[in-house]
Amino acid sequence: MDKSPNILWLNEIRKDDIPSVGGKGASLGEMTSIGLPVPQGFVVTAQAFRRFLQLTKLEDSIFDILEKLDVDDNDALNATADLVKSMVSSAVMPEVIKKEIIASYQKMGSDTVVAVRSSATAEDLPDASFAGQQDTYLNILGETDLLQAVQDCWASLYGGRAIYYRAKQGFDDRTVNIAVVVQQLVFSEKAGVMFSSHPISGAATVIIEGSWGLGEAIVSGTVSPDNYVYDRKNKRITTKTVANKSVEIIPDGNKGTKTVPVPESRQNVQVLSDVEVAKLAEFAVISEEHYKVPQDMEWGMVGDTIYILQSRPITTIQKNHVVSASEKTADSAADGEIILQGYGASPGIASGPVVIVSDAKDTSRVKEGDIMVSPMTNPDMVPAMRKVVGIITDEGGMTCHAAIVSRELGTPAVVGTKKATSLLKEGQIVTIDGEKGLIYDGKLEAASPVTAAVAAPVAAAAPIITATSVKVNVSMPEAAARAAATGADGVGLLRIEHLIIGMNKTPSWYIKNGKEEEFISELYDGIKTVLDAFRGKPVWVRTIDSPTDEFLNMAGGEDEPHEHNPMLGFRGLRRDLRQMAQFKMQAECFKRLWEAGYDNLGIMFPLVQHPREFLAAKEAFRSWGIDVENRVLGIMVEIPASAIIIDEFIKAGVKFCSFGTNDLIQYTLAVDRNNGMIGDMYEPEHPAVMRLIKHCIEQCREAGVECSICGQAGSDPKFVKWLVNQGISSVSSNIDAIPKIRETVAKTERQILLNMAFKKN
């Protein structure tokens, strides 16, 4: 047995000590060494853990169990993880290790409340991240609880997700160790995170987020934090956004935390003073300059004292990224004249001449580099939206068409301005800030055109394995590479309407003119592009779901029926089943893709209200030569009726279902989601909506049918947290939301496991 110490104090540790103290421990030690204000603490080394395994005779038995495990057998994986964790947690800690831990704790002060954090020796590394896969225990007081928390941290090395990840990444369980950080718990009165440089471009901009209480409120997505943007070069705050912070997370006095309301007097108060922002930015710069790479940091404050709690490399910075205006700190924007304000729907800053598009007939005037201004966009306008550098609308919110498409294209957008089309003039040069929802007069110094062609793809964060699949929504083939770059587990919704609109001819036109093969070929190529980008991952394609008014301005639109309320009319599967020639063209495309080997293709039928519609669609596919029993066919749940009788759909043989929350909410509440006058009534968390979703998830889980979500609510961390707690199988989010949603899912799953562990104890 080697002579390495069981305990190392933070002031003894440097960044090269990862083999002994793990990534987290090495980072804390290194930060301590350069004078950053890190709370006092020590590390129970990886060598101590290895001695524990050897002295308790657990080493060989654990690894023998793991070597026989098939990690792709989910039941076996979970059972094995529970067994091995129990073996580690319940073993008697050797006296020699126990005494050193107790002596070190007493040195800190036996009444010190500590945080006990796992620090895997492969954690927080630039090329392999195990972060979030092992456990943390907060609010630990006393020797007995400390020893158990250390042992539970060791046990967490053998959690199901951690075992699976190591197997898939090629790590040998025998070689992976774990250290445990024991550190004074900072009872933060305010806390948050910060990036020493822009997390995508690497621009010299410190971004700080803060809220009341512990930083867990921000990381978990429980609260929307204040946001501060600090220009490192000019040493000043360029942007300050104060959010409503209705809750905070605080220690509960019983080895954990609790969420409590924030008094109204503090809810809309700026968390950080300008001086505090500047001081935090200074610490961020010190850390980056020392590590020589931009840092993702956690901080907390008690009174006037700042504590730095973590610093790790930012993993989302794009190589060869073209720095857009939004990433140049918007210095000039801060000094520009704001002429209009709305909702920031898609981040980025761009300048260009205004072109007012009242309806699809006006899109012929749109040129590359324009700022498109419209009352509200619709699918007919997508070809024009692909050209422009920015989009502004009068109406709409975060779930409107303009917002969804803009985020997918990476085009800055501001929606819901109420008066853009009347206030702005044709040809007027404006600058838009799609993050803050601001429109400035003229071309500002910091702004430069940002088109879909140069917009940075969303970077995939370091891999995080979750039991709940995190998929992505895609509308256009050109967004496939950007979507795949997120590391998403597949495509939970591929809309094909925009493909068709790009053809500028209705499906009925192709049928009428004997051009069916041309339609099938175009559709095939577009879907294939997405399937190729997601090889080996499921791609769920939704059949055509365009209300009739969206086809009116296309060739063949003259044959479209005129409906008083198209949203409730001739659309979705109900249309396909009445226009079988249109349905058959889609089916032929899918059939060719399956025959070409694209077994990852699944088909999703929209606006289904009764199982007989699904059975009719299935029978039609069968009649056209498709082996329906061996293909993945599912439905959208976007009508209350389908949610209520989901058990009948399951009996009918659906392989999956996915909530289209945008429609489910508006149909349940009778609220037009594009109507700004009643936008405040569009309530995703309305009890009726949540009850329908909960019922559906429960029925699907009981039957073993995959249940997902692909509406806008799937991009909301708070809503996703609730969904994971209900047991949803997968979530599908907008491209820009994937990193945050994956983080939310991982933390929620971890909390569920912790809660279960506490119940067992």
Please describe what this structure looks like:
With 761 residues, the protein is an alpha/beta fold. The chain folds into four domains: 7-184, 2-Layer Sandwich (Dna Ligase, domain 1), CATH 3.30.1490; 190-313, 2-Layer Sandwich (D-amino Acid Aminotransferase, Chain A, domain 1); 325-441, Phosphohistidine domain (Glucose Oxidase, domain 1), CATH 3.50.30; 469-734, TIM Barrel, CATH 3.20.20.60. It has an eight-stranded mixed sheet with strand order 14-21-20-16-17-18-19-15, covered by helices on one side. It has an eight-stranded parallel sheet with strand order 28-27-26-25-24-23-22-29. It has a six-stranded antiparallel sheet with strand order 9-8-7-6-12-13. The longest helix is centred in the C-terminal third of the chain and has 23 residues, at 738-760.
